[in-house]
Amino acid sequence: MKTKSEFLSEAMIKLLNYRVEQEEFSSRLYLAMSTWLDDKGFAGASKLFKQYSDEETIHATKAKNMLSANGIRPITPALKQPKQDFLSLADVIIAAMEHEKEITRQCYALTKMAHIEENYMVVELGLWYSKEQAEELNKVQYLLDRLEAFGEEPSMLRELDEEMGELAA
Question: Can you say whether the dihedral through the CA atoms of 53, 134, 22, 57 is positive or negative?
Fold first, then answer.
C-alpha cells in the first residue's frame, strides 16, 4: 500500500480517510433511521431516509476517488453502530439535523486545511462537500419547519410522512 503522495500531505490523507469514514457512518445512521421509521409505519419517511443513506455512500466515494487518484489506497473503516431507536418521527428529523451540522463542521475543516496547504484539488472537493452540506441542511430544515408549522398530531404526521415519500426520488 502506497502511503506517500506528491500532492497529499499525511494530514490531508488522514482528513480524506476520515471523510470516507464519516460519510459511510452517515449512510449507516440514515439506514438505521429508515429501518426504524419503516417499523413504526412511516413508509414515506422510511423511503426518504433510505435515499439519504444511498446518497451518503456516493459522498464517501468522492473522498475515496481523491485518495485513489493520488496513489493512496483508501482505508475501509470500522464503523460504530449508529443509534437504533428513536422516540418519534420528530426525534429522527431532529437527530438528522444535529448530525448534518456536525458533518458540515467536518467539511469546513477539510476545506480550511486544503486552503492552508494550498491544495487546490482538495479545495475543490471541500467546496463540493460544503455545497452539498448546504443542500443537506436545507432538506432537513424544511422537514423541521413542517413539524413546527403543523405540529405532531397523528393526522399531520401522516401528511408529513406522505410528503416525505413524495420527496424521495
Answer: positive
